[in-house]
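dumping this here before i forget
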Amino acid sequence: MVNGKETIDILVDGSAATGGPPLGPALGPTGVNVKNVVDEINKKTSEYKGMKVPVKIIIDIPTKTFEIKVGSPPTSALIKKEIGIEKGTKDGSVVGDISFDKVVEIAKKKKESILAKDIKGAVKEVIGVCKTLGVNIEGTSPKEINSLIDSGKYNDKLKE
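structure:
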């Protein structure tokens, strides 16, 4: 506990957190209203339904107030959810296709948690995950899409 605050880091199912383990037992000793915490987590993770989401719960022990910070699921989970697949490929085959606009949307969601300096770099990181999963972008291989980005084809879609 630091400055009367305790932080709990936990992985929950988007919009499906419950007061049961592991959340309830972690919250119980802090004295906060577990139902209120669970309701807030479910509200804040609703867009990630069906995915594991990292959540940070910051509890002010003296006042029993709390703050919820929601992380982002792994890039691969966002891509798989977007195109409706359960798994990527292991043999290099193509298992799906995603639009470039969705790649940009995922990159913007992940921007804070990846190493890229700008949106172009973030998009390229997402494209790298597409390559690993066996997902093409608008019918084109990830390698070719990266070449098109470098040539300036997508500059209008890569503005911050």
